[in-house]
Amino acid sequence: MKFTYETKKDTRSGFGAGMEYLSQNNPKVVALCADLIGSLKLEAFIKNSPERFFQTGIAEANMIGISAGLAIGGYIPFATTFANFGTGRVYDQIRQSVAYSGKNVKICCSHAGLTLGEDGATHQILEDIGLMKMLPSMVVINPCDYNQTKAATIAIAEYEGPVYLRFGRPVVPVFTPEDQKFEIGKAIHLIEGTDVTILATGHLVWEAIQAAEILEEKGIKADVLNIHTIKPLDTAAILASISKTGCVVTAEEHQINGGLGDSVAQFLSQNHPTPQEFVGVNDSFGESGKPADLMEKYGLNAAAIVEKSIKAIARK
Amino acid sequence: MQTQELKNVASQVRRDILRQVHACQSGHPGGSLGCTDLLVGLYFNTMKLAQDANGNVVFNMSGNQEDVFYLSNGHISPVMYSVLARRGYFPVKELATFRQLNSRLQGHPTPHEHLEGIRIASGSLGQGLSVAIGTAQAKKLSNDTSTVYCLMGDGEQNEGQVWEAAMYAPHHKVDNLIAFIDENGQQIDGPTEKVMSNRDLEAKYKAFGWQVLRMDGNDMEEVINTLAHAKSLLGQGSPIMILMKTEMGAGVDFMMGSHKWHGVAPNDQQLADALAQLNETLGDY
Which domain range does residue A135 map to? Predict the structure, then answer.
């Protein structure tokens, strides 16, 4: 199957579109933001439902606590900010007041990973998937494009329990169907192949598709899965693919430590030991730069996936 | 309830606190004894609680159409557990399981084990006021006119999140909220004045936009009257803060006047000496 796209959009705008839908269709959804309304694309939600929006100012810890309190009162709070401030900065608030307390809070964060670009490493969190997936009961989702982010935003409002939804700032190809139904924890099989499994999440899914096309020119058939949900992991889909291919490459805009690749390795080592290569940031911080240049420098693009695929196949 | 009846309940709650902490040789008796009068006054007199047709309290997680109390300084769990059990939320005999394996009465309160009466985990300090504000705003959205209460410690005022919440509540006119600070003047490393002075909490909260009241938290009559006064100030655009002077260890002479009993359990003889000072009014578990 050949993947094409007509437009490029940012995944955060997909979140904004999902919130706009929820403002009109789910009266229990409330939104909170820590002084980043424009960055989180919340304008339409606020315009439609001003009484259901809470501006917290630059006070993320308080925002998480208020979200827990609103959830107790029967609302479905979407707490929003940049990924760095919505996870690492408030880890204990999420741990005690949301996860351990079992509250139905959705932590929705933009500007995850390297691709926020010029702001640099202070804002480029690459540890958030790991932090959030370690919390018992927390669902972790990293959709790949505008349409999927919109669908995921709508879907998590229907799910009862804490969720971390991660998305980003750059415009990226919109290649998944409009108005798709999003199933939490259900991987999407994108390309059929028998030589190597590529498991990608977030912005790296499009890069994985590009990689599969390059590999095909070399006579290598890649089996590509979009792992939009890192926790719970779709282990059945992963096992089915690896049973065919016998090797795997994981790809994510995140530290290798604690990321999707980590979860896959943990599962495979116990159930189906398999040669695995990792595309991710290798134990370093990011830096300022243009998104594409950063992804190139830190080895998070189609070329890196191709290289690791060839390496994985050689290890079979 | 009449003041004397409330005092009788408080005496039993103080016995429960000491016996819980003694049984597992762990927990925080000092602050628990100091806050006993407030929690008894709230749960047995002031708060409007959901009840069934027979007048027994019923626990609903949402707290819709009833008053909600949050304990932010979760380490004084013994007083919370005793008051909830004596009020009828769960069997009093369950107090015997405090801090033991497979108990719903964890060292610090949590809804994780589905203990009736507990809506949020607390113990990592500074978070309860934010949660209380969230529930107060949920009530406003739902046109629910009941009240949210939140107790914090004075040492807890060291936490930055408290001041984020203190700034937020008046800005958003959260005027269905009554908060308390237990001013016992002690924290783990010593007197609050020495460890990290709160200086003038009244001036601070007033500057943030709160209405501030004061009371002696160990005088049951004053507690009840101040709570009634605070309720009369609700709905006027500002949250209400009650600065509550208490004595750590209140009710047991040798536990008062120092922070020695913050997190120390009495031995057998000390328990006997303490219980001799407190009437068994409702029957020990």
Answer: 8-173
Domains, chain B, ranges and CATH? 3-275 (3.40.50.970)
Residues in chain B where the model's pLDDT stays below 70: none
Looking at the structure of chain A, the number of domains it has is 2
User: Binning pLDDT at 50, 70 and 90, where does residue A2 land?
Assistant: confident
pLDDT of residue A1: 64
3-state secondary structure B128-166: HHHHHHHHHHHHHHCCCCCCEEEEEECHHHHCHHHHHHH
Would you tell me which residues 94-113 of chain B have a C-beta closer than 8 angstroms to some C-beta of chain A?
Answer: 110-112
pLDDT, tens digit (0-9, with 9 covering 90-100), for B87-114: 999 999 999 999 999 999 999 999 999 9
Across the A:B interface, residue pairs with CB atoms under 8 Å apart total 119
Question: Residue B118: closest CA among chain A residues belongs to which residue?
Answer: A101
**Residue from B70, B73, B114, B161 whose CB has the most chain A CBs within 10 Å, to mutate:** B161
User: Does A160 share its domain with A193?
Assistant: no
pLDDT at A19 over 80: yes
Assess whether A141 and A245 both reside in one domain. Answer: no
pLDDT at residue A110 is higher than 90: yes
ipTM for the whole predicted complex goes beyond 0.85: yes
* Residue A27 contacts B where some CB pair is shorter than 8 Å: no
Q: Are residues A168 and A223 in the same domain?
A: no
Tell how strand A53-55 and strand A139-141 pair up: unpaired
Chain A nearest-CA distance from B257, in A, is 32
Tell me, yes or no, if B72 comes closer than 8 A to chain A by beta carbon.
Answer: no
Kind of pairing, strands B186-187 and B190-191? antiparallel
Q: Point out the domain boundary residue: A141, A173, A205.
A: A173
Which three-class secondary structure state does DSSP give residue B253? helix
- Which residues are bridge partners to B151 per DSSP? B71, B180
